[in-house]
Amino acid sequence: MSPATLALIEKLEALPAERLAEVEDFVDFIREREQDRRLTRAAQQASAPSFAAVWSNPEDDVYNSV
Q1: Residue 53 to residue 37: CA distance in whole angstroms
Q2: What is the mean pLDDT of residues 36-43?
Q3: CB–CB of 51/60 below 8 Å?
Q4: Quick one: residue 16, left, alpha or beta (phi over 0 = left, psi -120 to 50 = alpha)?
Q5: Does 58 or 8 have the greater pLDDT score?
């Protein structure tokens, strides 16, 4: 384990049980947020080719310089 991981474990072991529940909730929140971000990025990448045809056309070239 990395030194940072070991330091974090030591800090967690020093917390009272009710605080550990808060930490666990926070970790779950961070993981869910990261999963949401990954899904958003995947959706953006998947839709990019579809939007490229709409965004890249001669009629809209005038907006490229705005």
Answers
A1: 25
A2: 95
A3: no
A4: beta
A5: 8
Do 23 and 12 contact (CB within 8 A), yes or no?
yes
Q: Where are the alpha helices (DSSP H) in 14-55?
A: 17-55
Of 3, 4, 1, 23, the residue nearest 12 (C-alpha): 23
The rounded distance, in Å, linking the Cα atoms of 62 and 2 is 53
d(CA 19, CA 27): 12
Count how many residues are written for the chain. 66
Query: H or E stretch including 6?
Result: helix 3-13
SS3 for 14? coil
